[in-house]
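Side project, low priority. Logging it here so it doesn't get lost.
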Amino acid sequence: MKLADITSELLHLFAGQDADCGGAIVVWHDPSGEFEDVLADLELPGVSVIVDREGSRFAIKRKLNGDLGGRKVLIYRRSAGEPSGDWLADVEARCVPFAADYVSVQLREIGAVDSYEMRAVLESHKAFFAKRRNVIKLKKLLHSSKEVAVETVDELELGILATCLGVSELDPAAIVSGYLALLHEGNADQVVVLLAEYEMNDYFCELIRYWCGFEGNALELSRVPELLVHVLLTACSRSMTGGCLDALSGRFSFQAVHAAFCRACIDYWVRGGNRLLLLSMTTAVERELELGKILADVGLDCIAGADVFPCIDAAILRMLFERVRLSVDAADEVLSVVASRRGSLWYEELACYYRGVSAAAHMQRFYRDHVEGFAGMGALSLWGSYASDFYRMDAWYRELVTEFAGAFRAGEYELDEDFRACFESMEALYKGWFLKELSRRWASASGDALSLQGYVKGIPRQVDFDLSYVEPANRRGKRIWVIVSDALRYEVAAELAERLERETKGQCELGAVQGVFPSITKCGMAALLPHGTMRYEACGEGGSGFGVFVDGERVDTIEARQKVIGKHYEGAVAVRYDRFVGEMDRAERKKVVGGANVVYIYHDLIDAIGDKAVTERRVFHACDETIDELSVLVKLIVREFMSSRIVITADHGFLYTAETLAEYDHTSVADVAGDVIEAGRRWAVASSDSESDTLLKVALPASAGSLVGFSPRECVRLRRPGGGENFVHGGISLQEICVPVLTFSNKRAGTRGFVASSPVGLSLVTQLESISNASFFLEFLQDEAVAGKILPANYEVFVVDRSGSPVTDIARIVADLTEADATARRFKVMLTVRPTVELDEHAEYALCLRNADSGEERVLQTLHFHVYLGGEW
């Protein structure tokens, strides 16, 4: 250190003291005597310099015991300040220390206290501190989260180690995780050389042994390092029971504290956004160990709580697919396991399989609860049950088909074949039981009414849509928007309603109207229009089929529909969705709508995809896209036009089954005895004198008795030329004629009827005041079913000390269950005390629950720990 720098720093130290209050003393430590010759050259105005020499300390002591008020004293000492037997120990305790030697300067620079132990660390790692960039990195690392001095040797040596490994946190988990990442990527050789150069090998290996329980060579550089195997196996060992890992005994630690630390390493990777790296590491190890084969014969209970290796998820899914396929009694267990897996490491990577098996379990549970079928239910009862409950079977089947398509493309862990077996079983359940029994009962209950009048009395009718929804709003001078989405099935509209409830401030009310027969576009679109008359007419000589006329006009095009709407509502607008959203900007939309009180927007995606043989298998994907598009459209209308009332409906629904139809799934138009005017795969319109022994006869009141309809029973199709028979509509099944009417009412905060959305809550079920084990279980209850304005939430559970620092790992709960039964909304999680934590049995700790989405945190209760961890190391 240069003389000018020494002088400047000493003056600075004196200036920082109040000499008038007992004097100002600085003790300069120079054990090597390096600067004794320059004492005379110091320019320190007003400062008395005292040199500590053998035999003079008593005299110095007497001087310093006198009145030092207003004085500044510099004491130069060759001794290192060892307090035992030192006459000047009390002076040392109250003075400001200073040192100008190289080691002292380095200690000050890195913010470490000056002590024998600290100097010994610098002395033993000279090669490390000889490089300026190392010192800069170490200083930044040591003080990245705090400004206080580094007081312990362990903290300093940990900082040196972290600097060598290039990690950004002074955290044991970060150090181990960083080293393992380098090992896995084949980049650890340079680090091993550095550790040897800086004499950190033994220290590093000892730490790995202490933290992880690894007795091998932590510096081994192999294709799949044994340390990586040890850490990953140890991390999941505590959550696997029944001796699952006995075949790998000796390659991991059984100690809970080691498992907790190794799990902390896993959590560090996840928190740091290195999921892909972790996935690569875990799959490499599970392949090396052939872990999938080891787990193939274990019980579900043994691994249901484990999640470090993706092959664990694969083993669980195989069991779930088999159980739900073979037994309806397994449905509740399967749903419970899937719910518990929602917060696991690799759920999202295998989500299509989990969602698929969950949909299958819901279908099986529905079958179990309705195994007697629908016998004895009347038409009104059946209609009401479908609109409130039975439609969910269609939704689960749609989810099953959609997820199976995604899983088949992914092909992860060859689970697609397990999924396929389950899928085929559920296809048979949906088509062979649900559609067959529901359609059979509906035809029986409604058949007489349909034959006599073409509709069932007591059920709202599609032909009354305008009078029920549009005209009342217009009469009150309120603008109303009507969105007509072709083939928007009831269950799809139900999901749309849930989406709008979650994502907007508005409220949704979902109802249903009885669609006209045949349930095809030209009839359903006409029925939704305001009209005085609606009539079916055979096209007559030279034509084919029949036409639909509203107030004497055909309404096959949007332009024709606008003309009819305009006759009833002045200035009304009808526009195609693609043009309104895709082709117009905001100004153009404002201009088109103008002052119209009635606006119809026509959307066509589901029918456009489903009605083509080459794309019909994508119809369920079209349903998902429709939900996205209509959700965006509603938000756009609210945002740009401040509209408060939007009605979403359809012209008809549809039937869809994924598997190829068998011969017995068909019938023929030839079964109609008479003049068939027009027919589709689910309907036929014939002259009024026609009859059929196999098809259900349906009156067509709009034809004034000149025409009659026929519909196949159950989900049978009429044979027609050309492809495309999986997606059909036109018949009388509830899936086809139960037309949704979704009323969206936009609400502003503070207005009447406004309900704010809120995350679903969690309550602690487990009663505890003290913990006596390093690992312990907690049970939580999701307070309500997720629905409407009660939104799903992601929670984190952990225990903190008085300072707010976590003393356990963090358990995650995805609270998104929709079951009404509270017993089906329970979660069980395990917490483990972190191995580097020193517990105080007299201290209070807090069990915390944090909403991971909002960051909101609350204390569930205080507790004490009565557990000794030392013996577990």
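Brief comment: The first strand starts at residue 24 and ends at 29.
Revisit when time allows.
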